[in-house]
Amino acid sequence: MVMREVKGMLSGLGVTLRTMFEPAVTVQYPHESEDPPIRARGVIALKEESCTVCMLCCRSCPDWCIYIEGHKEKRPPRREGGRERTAGILDRFDIDYALCMYCGICVEVCPFDALFWSPEFEYCATDIRSLLHDKNKLGDWMTKVPEPGPLESGAQVKGKK
Amino acid sequence: MSILALDIGWGTTLAVKTLVVMLLIPLGALIFGYVFLFKMMAHMQSRLGPMESGGFHGWFQLVGDGIKFVQKEDIFPEKADRHVMALAPFIVMLSTFLVFLVVPAGPRIVVAPLDVGVFYALAVSSLSVIGVVMAGWASANKYALISALRATGQLIAYEVPLVLAVVGVVIQSGTMSLQGIVLAQRDGAIFGWDGIGHPFVLTQIVGFTLFIVAAQAELTQPPFDMPVAESEIVGGYMVEYSGFRFLLFFLAEFGTAFAFAALAATLFLGGWALPGVHGGAADAFGPVVVLVKVMFVAFLMFWARFTYPRMREDQLQALAWKWLIPIALVNILVTGALKVVF
Amino acid sequence: MTVTPPGFEVDPSLLRHLDGAQIGVELDNGDMVLSMGPQHPATHGTLRLVVRLDGERVVAADPVIGYMHRGYEKLTEFRTYPQVTTLVNRIDWLSSFANEVPFVHAAEKLMEVEAPPRAEYIRTALTELARVATFLLFLGEMGLQVGAITPTFYGFRDREYVLNLIEGATGGRFHPNFNRIGGLKDDLPWGWVAECRSAMRKVLDACDDFEDLVLGNPIFEKRTRSIGIIPAVIGASYGVSGSNLRASGVDWDLRRDGEPYLAYRDLDWKVWTHPDGDSFSRYWVRLQETRESARMVLQLVDGLPSGPIMAKVPRVIKVPPGEVWVSTENPLGEMGYYVVSKGSTGPFRVKIRSASFSNVSILPWLLKGCYVPDVISILASLYFILGDIDR
Amino acid sequence: MSDEQPEGARPTADGGEAGGAAGSGDGIEAAVAPSAPAPPALAEREAGLLSRLRADLGDGIVEDGNACGGLVVRVRPDMWRRAGETARDKLECDYLSFLSGIDWAPASAFCGEGRGDASTPQQPSEMDFGTAGSAGRFQVFARVASTGRHWGVTFKCDVDEEDPHAESWVPVYPGADWHERECWEMYGIVFDGHPALRHLYLPSGFEGHPLRKDFPLLAREVKPWPGLVDVEPMPEAAGAEGGGE
């Protein structure tokens, strides 16, 4: 009985000593940084041209953190005889990242693929008001949107974004 | 009164010696804290510990903490007993200083070569209990009160095995003065062969382990850290302290660890004695040798601290009274018998 | 009207542990009422335990909860089904993927939609990964509560590998939002299977480390053996479920015994039970279950069928009217949803049955007559998450 | 205690109710989907449980239903505790899964419209009841399971609207203590025989019963819905709410 106890005590010491000589796992963030995987949901990027101000993302956002304002403009008809088309032009498209919970419903529900995920995460701010990213800031994030990576073998490849 | 045979009057030697000791404690505490609590603990938990402050491997971290604590406000709870609470850290600090007076660091480098060195050191080290109880009771906080009561039970219960563990050494060296013990270890021989002198750890291995275990309990370090069990009573008797007094408690904790490691190194590992070094050189190398041995002993104590969970109150008392003390008595019996025979 | 909580009026017949203590005498023996929490390192978040002490023995304990109450059942009435899945995985935030599975199954049952086999396999793999991540944190954190600092860091370090896996596949470490009614949002990225195999091997090594460092340690055994014993009958009547009940010897695991769900019937795995029912056996059962889950993930990844991952489901989901109760074996215990639908795009009423709520409701009975340090080791061994209790 | 009322006007037989207004099938706008085909009859195991319950409770069982394979039994309010004891003793259901309440009042009748908030799903406006029906607005329902036999039963019982009372299950399952405290706090249903009915989640001074349908969700009242702005409707959807309203 006592031998089992002594063995238990020593095996515990063995584990800590072995770990002491193994390399530490810490990544010293400011100097070296672990790059997040392709699909990481860091920030939402907006491709303004394909947005038709249909408000679907704004409606299906659980946190109500997307603010959209748009107006209608006349567009020349596609074929010369056709009637004039009206297209929605975006005036204001803000996402309030202080409220956003990164669930991704807006990116998925957008029928025109105007919203994309980007693994960029270094946009913290000292003032909470500056977490409200406006249209052009969301446009800038477009440059950071990676190509969707290849899928695992056996996956049925669909044109999903 | 002289240090290194330079007789420079009584007053100044006393001043120099107290200055050395006053410097030794914070320095020792800082080194211990940094090496063991930051670096060694970190690597044992597969992380790096402080790397940023002070450039190379974060050496400035602990000094920075010290400065931070000094400039923090010293808060006393409204219902607390101000004077008792203010005095408590100094009493705990006092016991650490007094222990260093007798620890020799070389043939002639010792503050006070008392003949009753060991007896004095152990007696003084139990002073910290009073400081802990004062802190626990005066800070009018339920958690602190529980912690103070736990501390009394624990520190007193582990005084006895601490003293008994040392008795074996005293029997073998025949003297109680630490200087004498070190000399006995340097010149002694194990059954005639005196290649590396006679460090008592070889023959007194039982005494050494008992001393380490009892010292671990005196320092309230895991596996015996009930008084400061953060998951049960949130910081124990130090919970209401802040600022400079908390720094004193922190320094006292590591200072006492430094003191007990020094005592263990002197009693069991032969203090400043190195097998082939005599005379003047011993004076020069003495402190370095002691430091290395202290680091080794401290490594053992902190190693246990970072590995083991903490015991419960009654289990702790049971361990002291039912296991440590009987073993210590048996050890004394065997040492005495062998002493008579050889 | 202030009602004295049960246990605070002295009723000697109940306190069978305390025959020696001077309980029940009319004179006020000055018991100390200690409030542990809501900011207390041992209460995993904002649980407040008002404990009446006689010396260091607990006379009565009354957990006060509600500091983390977010009113989920009210929120679900104002959300559509896809929005509810993002809401619901924040209940037990450590194994968030596992929370979504029963809700998605409830909706699929009502709509009579079947998720394709590949989606079922990936869902099972991610649920078991969530279980491994939760238990790794528990294995480390139980050591911390009982005093050993080092296991916590091993727990977090090994959990990191699993979280990277989940983030690689779903995009989110804590809140994957990967479940859709009828399947999954996307398929696995390239190289995920290989990474998953190496991570699972690391997890299995980590379990051996925990075995040596914590389980084998005699001090840990002294601190947890025969502490906080839950008899099977009383545990079941309080609704205790999952590893806590299996540690009391009840051989009941919804993955095997309940209605067949996900891909558990294609795997061979063992349900671990322990006869004692004390804190030690709860730790032991969870350690074995971590190993079992890691092996399950390896089997799943080997047998991954190919094919689509999303069934044919209309773009705007309207669930036909009806009621359904689906409960699954979450890492913390039985988690179930009683979904009442009236044919709209959102549920009419969702009763969320979370495991920790019942696991913690046994505390007043369990903590009578034990020491203060034991309270901590019992709280740690029950392993509850505050979001799970307060919903 | 509400006496035995004849069945509610709406036939709540096993099959799903008849669909409401024809689905207008646009956007989020609510419509009741065409009624689902009648769910399959109870599996034989559940039918066996039902017969054993009927044997013991007799006419105490007002109605039974099938919730996608699960057995739902509605008992008379005065037989509520008896039903618990029967489940525990006769059906070996030693495990109490949960106990809670339902408020069948139509949600849209009280809050949600008028603010043009189209993101909240619109529930049908008339009051109808789920499986095994209900006599009034409030109901207490509980689920018990057997850890040995691996089966479970859901019990329901009606609660009078003006003076909501129900028998407490604490003597049968001690675990019901917290469930009943929560149900009292959220629905206002008083449980007779409960040792200490006090607040569980909400602060002691809280008035009102949040889970009742007439209790507004303040988060959605305070902040205006961001989708209210003058906007072009989605091209292919039939005009949901048209240009700015």
Topology, pairings included?
The complex is a heterotetramer of chains A (161), B (342), C (391) and D (245).
Chain B: H1 10-44, H2 61-71, H3 82-100, H4 117-125, H5 128-138, H6 142-173, H7 178-187, H8 200-203, H9 205-218, H10 230-233, H11 244-269, H12 279-307, H13 313-341
Helix pairs in contact in B: 1-11, 1-12, 2-11, 3-4, 3-5, 3-11, 5-6, 6-9, 6-13, 7-11, 9-11, 9-13, 11-12
Chain C: E1 32-36, E2 48-54, E3 57-64, H1 72-76, H2 81-88, H3 96-111, H4 117-146, H5 150-170, E4 179-180, E5 183-184, H6 192-215, H7 218-224, H8 232-238, H9 243-246, H10 279-302, E6 322-330, E7 333-341, E8 349-353, H11 355-361, H12 363-366, H13 372-382, H14 386-390
Antiparallel strand pairs in C: 1-2, 2-3, 4-5, 6-7, 7-8
Helix pairs in contact in C: 2-3, 3-4, 4-5, 4-6, 4-10, 4-13, 5-6, 6-10, 10-13
Chain D: H1 44-57, E1 61-67, E2 70-75, H2 80-89, E3 95-103, E4 138-145, E5 152-159, E6 165-167, H3 176-187, E7 190-192, H4 218-222
Parallel strand pairs in D: 2-5, 6-7
Antiparallel strand pairs in D: 1-2, 3-4, 4-5
Description:
- The complex is a heterotetramer of chains A (161), B (342), C (391) and D (245).
- With 161 residues, chain A is an alpha+beta fold.
- Chain A contains four helices and five strands.
- Chain A has helices at 2-21, 56-60, 105-109, 135-141; strands at residues 43-46, 66-75, 85-96, 115-118, 132-133.
- The mean pLDDT of chain A is 84.
- Helix content of chain B is 68%, strand content 0%.
- Chain B contains 13 helices and no strands.
- In chain B, helix 1 (10-44) crosses helix 11 (244-269), helix 2 (61-71) packs across helix 11 and helix 3 packs antiparallel against helix 4.
- The longest helix of chain B has 35 residues, at 10-44.
- The radius of gyration of chain B is 21 Å and the shape is globular.
- The two termini of chain B are 38 Å apart.
- Chain C is of the alpha+beta class and 391 residues long.
- Chain C has two domains: 1-26, no CATH class; 72-390, Orthogonal Bundle (Cytochrome-c3 Hydrogenase, chain B).
- Chain C contains 14 helices and eight strands.
- Chain C has helices at residues 72-76, 81-88, 96-111, 117-146, 150-170, 192-215, 218-224, 232-238, 243-246, 279-302, 355-361, 363-366, 372-382, 386-390; strands at residues 32-36, 48-54, 57-64, 179-180, 183-184, 322-330, 333-341, 349-353.
- Chain C has a three-stranded antiparallel β-sheet with strand order 1-2-3. A three-stranded antiparallel β-sheet of chain C has the order 6-7-8.
- In chain C, helix 2 runs antiparallel to helix 3 (96-111) and helix 4 (117-146) packs antiparallel against helix 5 (150-170).
- The radius of gyration of chain C is 22 Å and the shape is globular.
- Chain D has 245 residues and is an alpha/beta fold.
- Chains C and D meet through helix 1, helix 8, strand 6, strand 7 and strand 8 of C and strand 3 and helix 3 of D.
